[in-house]
Amino acid sequence: MREKSFATKGDAVIVTGAAGGIGAATVENLVNQGIFVFAVDKNSEALSKILAGIDPKNVLTQAIAADVTSEKDCQSVCEAAKSKGIRVKGLVNNAAVGAFNMSVESTSFEDWQRIISINLTSLYLMAKYALPLIRSAGGGAVVNISSIHAYATSTGVAPYAAAKGGVLALTRTMALDLAPDNIRVVCIIPGATDTPMLRQHAEREGKTLAELGFPSSENAIGRIAQPEEVADVIAFALSRGASFITGSSLIPDGGILAKF
Ligand SMILES: NC(=O)c1ccc[n+]([C@@H]2O[C@H](COP(=O)([O-])OP(=O)(O)OC[C@H]3O[C@@H](n4cnc5c(N)ncnc54)[C@H](O)[C@@H]3O)[C@@H](O)[C@H]2O)c1
Fold first, then answer.
1. For the chain, N or C: smaller number of CB within 10 Å?
2. Ligand 1 and 123: CB distance under 6 A
3. Which CATH class is domain 12-190+225-252?
4. Alpha-carbon distance values, 113 to 9, 120, 128 (Å)
């Protein structure tokens, strides 16, 4: 398993939510290692801008505009990846939406289904169509981005926390199913990270991140993460160094979960 279950220079990885904060930092990290990235996002305009900055000549990236809640789009992403002819050794299931001020009672059924669909069901859909590619490459890794809300949470995040808890459970069961194929499945549990998701939340609330309590002493390190710090952990999960890690979580949370 050790020699097969990771991505390295010359391999390809699919990254969803590639135009967002953590997604773009992950694309940059992988490209810097010589890994080809199929960069997937619903927001094609933002995606083009991001990739123009990271890989202006499109040598190591291919932008794919897709909605990961659509089975047809997920299938098309994987068909495009297959047709490129590079070994696909990894999938980073990163796309998601933030959802705040949403208790069970205040969340409409429509919003509940929308958030679960983006933040949980899309991981199943992308994996369903990407796994045959990773298997035919001899193995690799799926990295599922969850959140500290899978472990400890707060008020007003019912659909988000439910989805992220589901991502953790999905990671465990996928890891068991896929170990015989040299495919590792790893969950990432980021704490608050300085990305458009968090900044848009602050804007909607008309408050600064500090006023919302994000750079907090509750967090042992006392600040929020930069997206590159989470991307480093994602890249590690895909790498040879993580060849004995599967079915468990890596937790770049600055220490927030260490406290009562
Ligand atoms: N920022 C944080 O504080 C934080 C903390 C814990 C976990 N996370 C998780 O990290 C991941 C990345 O978050 P981020 O903060 O970089 O968010 P972000 O909003 O900056 O990026 C998310 C990206 O996903 C894309 N996306 C959304 N719905 C999509 C869809 N249906 N199809 C395709 N693309 C879609 C968006 O266009 C966006 O580019 C998410 O899974 C998020 O839940 C973030």
1. C
2. no
3. alpha beta
4. 39, 10, 20
